[in-house]
Amino acid sequence: MSDTEDHPSTPSRPWRYGSNIVMGVFGGLSRIWLKAFSKTQVDGLDGFMQVLDERKDIEGRERGLITVSNHISVVDDPLVWGALPLRYCFNADNMRWTLGSYDICFTNKFLSTFFTFGQVLPTHRIAYSPYGGLFQPTMTQTIRLLSHGPYTPPTPPSTPSSTTTESLHSASKPNRSIKSPDISDPFSSPHLTYSTNTIDTFPAPSAYPNRRHSWIHIFPEGKVHQHPDRTMRYFKWGVARLLLEADPLPRLVPIWIDGPQHIMHEERPSPRWLPSTGEAVRIVFGQEVDVERVFGDLRRRWEALTEREGEEPREMGVLSERLKFGKEAVDLRMEVTKRVRMEVLKVRKSAGLDDEDPKAGLVETWRAEGGAREGRMLDGSLVKED
């Protein structure tokens, strides 16, 4: 096999067509819903389209792009991208990647194929899987997608039972059963895959040069949160890893969403799958954040911390135990996450909403919600694992 065949610049043509079709069709359906079945107001779209237009030339990209927003319904994604003209939706190379729950979106081969074509990465939720958490292999893929790339996964380890972080990046031959979530591009080399749990197999998007400096959309709340005052939950730390570790520091655009919580309310009557029509929807694309000004000091502290580790260079997105759990590393992630949340709050305020209670952004928020993971909480909010 030639080097070009072994390290292709893009996934195979059938795979790219599949992704363009899924992204384009669901972008189009979302656009129809916003235009025909909702009362939609979109603010800041011209500025956001300018950001995307600057990224059309893959070779000319210099940074990845992160978008972050509140999460108020199970249809936020893809509905919000219906605000974009169709020419964006049918160009998967310049559309978002996002994270999807493994136990919902990747339970069999059909769902795995659909969501992978839709540029969703399989993510284990720690409440449902021992493979979940901040340092799972999909987080490594996400950091690499934002970076220059390509990053080819390492050779599978000789000890199948190994549970090191590095081994979780490797993949074995896909299970062909339709009940298995395993998938891979049949027209590409099998080494361009990775595993989320040492058993399954998924395409490794960061292994292709055309995915360098990709766009990642994150819902940092980690679950659907419908509060009568439209406040947000505390943000989880995954977004901090992306901003601290991707190389170079990615661009950042905050977004505020309002209205989909009425389209798919968590206490909607039967049939629950049927969306509500005629609801007011507002999507506000904030101005691009000056990431050097807002996060530059924290990046410099992170870089100094990694240098002090004094260890041999590691793979992109793979951390030592001290960089995972050391106090300074944890404090940096907390501060980055706090600043990201503040940027989303600025967009929320621009939409005419009153300031939140500052306590709403604290991790202790879960105590006010009660002990349940889903349903109506003690503070009046509705929460849905997503």
Mean pLDDT: 89
Treating each run of at least 4 consecutive H or I residues as one helix, how many helices?
15
Please give the order of strands in the largest beta sheet: 1-10-9-2-7-3-4
**Helical amount:** 25-40%
C-alpha termini separation: 42 Å
Q: What gross morphology would you assign?
A: globular
Largest sheet: 7 strands, mixed
Q: Unreliable runs, pLDDT <50, ≥5 residues?
A: 155-170
Total strands: 12
Query: Which percent range describes the beta-strand content?
Result: 5-15%
What structural class do you assign from the helix and strand content?
A: alpha/beta
**What does the radius of gyration come to?**
20 Å
SSE series: HHEHEHHEHHEHHEEEEHEHEHHHHEE
Describe this structure in words.
This protein has 386 residues and is an alpha/beta fold. Helices cover 35% and strands 14% of the residues. The model is unreliable at 155-170 (pLDDT under 50).
List keywords for this structure.
386 residues; alpha/beta
Q: Can I get a quick summary?
A:
The chain has 386 residues and is an alpha/beta fold.
Topology:
Elements: H1 3-6, H2 13-36, E1 38-43, H3 45-53, E2 65-69, H4 76-79, H5 86-89, E3 96-101, H6 102-105, H7 109-117, E4 120-123, H8 137-146, H9 165-168, E5 193-194, E6 202-203, E7 215-218, E8 223-226, H10 238-245, E9 251-258, H11 260-263, E10 279-285, H12 291-308, H13 321-325, H14 327-350, H15 365-369, E11 375-376, E12 382-385
